[in-house]
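Page 42, continued from yesterday. The earlier attempt failed because a stray header line got pasted into the input along with the sequence. Redoing it now with the clean sequence only.
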Amino acid sequence: MRLADAYFRDIPGTVQKLDYDVRTDGQPVYLGRASTDAAEGDSTWVISFFEFAGSFVSTITTKRGSWTGRVALFA
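This time it went through. Structure tokens are written below.
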């Protein structure tokens, strides 16, 4: 599956972060990718927000922003 500027596989020179928010079933709510030298506050992160219908992903929205501001980015 291709995201804007990113892929769901490992890309050399990048870091991936997952945030599960309040979910307890092991499904991430936020997925972020950036180069390994990017700080969490840099606005160069490609962040995906997963919306769920029950336990299945129904919508994935992707934006560019900072990992520390991910919640506000999708508010």
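Notes: The mean pLDDT is 89.
Reminder to self: strip header lines before submitting.
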